[in-house]
Design brief:
alpha+beta, DNA Primase, Chain A, DNA primase DNAg catalytic core, N-terminal domain, Dna Topoisomerase Vi A Subunit, Chain: A, domain 2, 4 domains, five-stranded antiparallel sheet, five-stranded mixed sheet, 18 strands, 56% helix
Length: 575
């Protein structure tokens, strides 16, 4: 296998491989482009022919030609190997026949199961009638390859074994289940008496199924395939393969719970919608979406269960630094109901979505009229969400908002916020490339990362081209010496990665010097904007309190910040 990889790398250049997917522009000794893995306006994706690697300064995607193909095509390493081998004219030498064929046979069994379920749907008008009653027409049934299987024990098992598939492979495919040991009975089908929704990987290959019970007597209501070599329910999002381009283009994702919600949302024109297929959203789900856009709208059912799911997803999203909004659905309604009744109403609900924290604050105020009990509810439900917000400016805004709407003094809210126990999202999970990954918080800004990375890189050089003492001083003057030391401590965990980023990005001393000036200017602007937002928030509080003296002082400070920003902008225009 290693020989195959080396041969392919000898015959192919990474720039030729990547240029088939994105438009590359020359940038010194490297190439740059808009990143294909997340939405951006300014190119931050760089390819190094020297290192035969790529790196995105926006989303952190990096690797060689194999990892690029894995990510862009949604395949595993073996799939990327096959694609690149075909391009390079290399015949792959497998160690064993089994290693080459078992996955292919599982894919084959899955596709035959899809066709089997599709045919059964045509034979059962009651299943078609149910889909029609929910607003799913013939075109949508075909497009999403929907199927049905009667409530019988071994229909699919008998069909696939008659085509030459053995029990062991069908078990590995997640299509059948074993019975008790020594019972003498054959395995039985996983799905029975259900509408079948095929689940696809990122590149659109069907890897598993989700089944919705047609009868109210059949439990559970939703049933997914077990995890297999092709499918992991903690990572797979229904409709992701069809939604990803729309998510990049619109720069936000709509998250719904059910398959019918998803299909009808797409049919109404909201194609940037994905669903969890009846399971809770996981860090891996949201990490995948964040690569395309950091903005999500949660559109769950308008009942207690939907609200609970939205609360959990909000915590996860905020912990990952995402912008989370919630669409307020009428009680007892789900997205499928709204689309069926009036697709324009569904779009209006999404348009009117509000910040998740504001949504839950409004709910808390509506439910609890007793001031003392409301304070406890705010402490328990709202402040933990505020604590997850990365930006100090936004935290200040939400504290002011809670105070304004509840009458609770800001000082008391800040005191309670300091005592909030952060939810434990430092959990390890298996990411898309099969490696363990930890969700960490908080993240630091890209500007800070770039500057610290430059310092780490230059410190590793025998003859630095940058005055590191002066650069440290310039950064400290903007963010404070204590904050800078803490920043070095946190980012020190990623030191090697940051050195690689800087080394691959800066091809000449001139470019490095120019970029340091620009980065410092951007950092200054960020600090000033943060200060401006804080002062405006304080000004709002002073205006509510009608404190004329404080209003005058804060107004003067705001003007000082605005002038400083104007001077900075003028200086940047002259560069």
């Amino acid at each position: 296998m290693r020989g195959n990889v080396d041969t392919i790398k000898e015959r192919l250049d990474i720039t030729d491989v990547i240029s088939n997917y994105v438009k590359l522009e020359k940038s010194g000794s490297n190439f740059k482009a808009k990143c294909p893995f997340h939405n951006e306006k300014t190119p931050s994706f760089f390819v190094s022919p020297t290192r035969q690697s790529f790196y995105c300064f926006g989303c952190g995607a990096k690797g060689d030609m194999f990892s690029f193909i894995e990510e862009i095509e949604g395949v595993d390493f073996r799939g990327a190997l096959k694609l690149l081998a075909d391009k390079a004219g290399v015949e792959i030498e497998y160690q064993s026949k089994e290693a080459k064929t078992e996955k292919d046979r599982i894919f084959e069994a899955i596709l035959l199961a899809v066709e089997f379920y599709e045919e059964r749907l045509k034979e059962h008008p009651e299943a078609v009638e149910y889909l029609t009653s929910r607003g799913i027409g013939a075109e949508a049934i075909t497009k999403w390859r929907l199927g049905y299987v009667p409530n019988e024990w071994r229909l699919l098992f008998k069909h696939l074994t008659s085509l030459g598939f053995n029990k062991e492979l069908l078990l590995k495919a997640g299509l059948i289940k074993k019975v008790e040991e020594n019972s003498g009975k054959e395995p039985y089908d996983v799905f029975r008496g259900r509408i079948i929704f095929p689940l696809s990987d990122r590149s659109g290959r069907i890897t598993a199924f989700s089944g919705r019970a047609l009868s109210k007597d059949l439990e559970p209501k939703y049933l997914n395939s077990p995890d297999t070599v092709l499918f992991n329910k903690g990572e797979t999002l229904y409709g992701f393969d069809k939604a990803k381009e729309s998510i990049r283009r619109k720069n936000y994702t709509v998250l719904v719970e059910g398959q019918l919600d998803l299909i009808l949302s797409h049919e109404s024109g909201v194609e940037n919608t994905v669903a969890s297929s009846g399971t809770a959203f996981t860090p891996a789900h949201l990490e995948r979406l964040k690569k395309l856009s950091p903005r999500i709208i949660l559109a769950f059912d308008g009942d207690a269960a939907g609200e609970k799911a939205a609360e959990r997803s909000t915590e996860l999203g905020l912990s990952l630094g995402m912008e989370v909004k919630i669409a307020s659905l009428p009680e007892g309604k789900d997205p499928a109901d709204l689309v069926k009744e009036n697709s324009s109403e569904w779009k209006s609900v999404l348009k009117d979505s509000t910040s998740a924290i504001e949504f839950f604050l409004k709910k808390a105020i509506e439910r609890e009229k007793d001031v003392r009990k409301m304070g406890k509810l705010i402490e328990k439900k709202i402040l933990p969400l505020v604590a997850l917000v990365e930006s100090a400016v936004e935290r200040n805004y939400f504290i002011s908002l809670v105070s304004k709407r509840t009458g609770i003094k800001e000082e008391a809210l800040w005191e309670d916020l300091r005592r909030v126990k952060m939810p434990n999202f430092h959990e390890t999970f298996v990411s898309e490339n099969g490696k363990e990954k930890t969700v960490r918080m908080p993240r630091k800004t890209n500007i800070e990362r770039r500057l610290v990375g430059i310092i780490f890189w230059q410190e590793s050089q025998p003859h630095p081209t940058v005055d590191l003492f002066s650069l440290r001083g310039e950064i400290a003057a903007r963010v404070g010496a204590d904050y800078l030391e803490k920043l070095f401590e946190i980012l020190g965990l990623e030191k090697e990665t940051l050195i690689f980023e800087a080394e691959s990005y800066y091809s000449t001393p001139e470019k490095l010097s120019q970029d340091i000036v620009e980065l410092l200017n951007n950092l200054s602007d960020d600090v000033l904007r943060e200060k401006q937002a804080f002062l405006l928030s304080e000004l709002t509080r002073a205006e509510i309190a009608k404190d004329e003296k404080e209003i005058a002082q804060l107004s003067e400070k705001v003007q000082t910040v605005l002038k400083a920003r104007a001077v900075l902008e003028e200086r940047r225009e002259k560069m």
